[in-house]
Amino acid sequence: MIARVLISFLFVWLLPAGLRAADPETLLMPGPVIEGHAEIEEECTSCHRPFDRSAEDGLCLGCHEDVGADLTAGKGFHGLAPGLAATACRSCHTDHRGRQADVVGLNPATFDHGLTDYPLQGAHVRVPCADCHVAEKKHREASLECVSCHEGDDVHRGGLGEDCSACHEDSSWKKATFDHDTTKFRLEGAHEDVACRLCHADERFEKTPSDCATCHVSADVHKGSFGAQCGDCHDANQWKSQLFDHDRDTEFPLDGKHVGADCGACHKGQLYDDPAPTDCNACHQADDVHGERNGDQCQDCHATRSWVKIAFDHDEDTKWPLRGGHAQVLCESCHPGNLDDPVEKECLGCHQADDVHRGQQGEECASCHDENSWTETVGFDHDLTHFPLLGLHATVACEECHTTHAYADAETDCVACHRPDDKHEQRLTEACASCHNPNGWAIWHFDHDAQSDFPLHGAHEGVDCTTCHVEQAPEKIELADECGSCHLSDDVHRGAFGRDCGRCHGEQDWTKVKLGR
Length: 517
What we know:
two-stranded antiparallel sheet, about 20% helix
């Protein structure tokens, strides 16, 4: 150290008088500092203390306060990387190497992001650095909030706040979980299986109505006549189940067919304001096929279990036994007039309005439906159609191909469903089945020799399909098969020998020429 001081004074003494006033430290500087330190290059004491190297770290952290804070709090790269807290700054960040020197030494390819406040997990591992670390900004300034990157993915448009991780996970943005029980409206019963969008239309979550009538107005068969307090009779397990007990809660116990009668049939006005009549004729006057000739004491002949006479057995006395769901149908549903009037026996005679197929499936409803329930038990063998379900088609959900109940409208061409899978961009026609089969789209086979007019021999066997099939040919492939159609650019003779290149050139190697023919 003493030698250094003597040399410094000797050096200064030997300088011309005009330079002796300069700072000896500056004159002894080993080289220019980096661009970021250029403003303090003349102020050596900003980074150094004479004869005290141990003071340098404190001076560094005095300027780089954010790094100092990380070291103190054990956060960020400097606070988390093992051993950095006890390592001198100059060990990694050596200055005086010129304006353009890189004293940071950050290598994105080898940097361990796990030594930061934001370890990369899930899909974040594959995200390019530049997506989060904006140019001209420090890496530490990258936001840790989900919304800073995913604001464009927020279909809720900020309606659920900025804590995306409460529902989404980093393995996939589309995988979302949310515990609705943490809200003021617990999902119970059938509500647990309801699609979110049915209640939260247009991604609206705040101020979502919680009363029954708002969502179930279309299912209110009472058309508002029973008020909006649906919970008095219905529960969340099933809309059709009722808490209301007519036998217990009223003076008119329901027995026989009255048990299955629609409430609105008797309660035509407001439920609590307009009491329903209790005499038979008040409700069944329209069903009186006798034209009131037998008076209004219907109960003298009829019972609540059936409007027809008790002595009348529909199964025994008619050619139409009542089975399944038909056994519960009101007589007037099939007998709108006098009981002696002919009754339509064909399914469509009663179920025309239920035919969602719009007549496409013919009039033989019983080939798929049975009389127990029109919708619950439906039998249908797709293999009896013009499109048997083979291979993976047998596992596809019906609605994937049949977007409506007009089943005959479904397309049978492969491209109708698989156009996005056509990697050939219609250059090999739309006849996908010539190569692909239903066992798997990736399982394909095509024999160019047997299935085309141009067998592939020699070097042609290894040529990529798109080399020759350049243009789209959705219906039919029409390619010229003469050599010149593809090899015109290879013709060094410039057409002088014609377009029949095969007279001299072979398919194995274009450069091998056969002469003398």
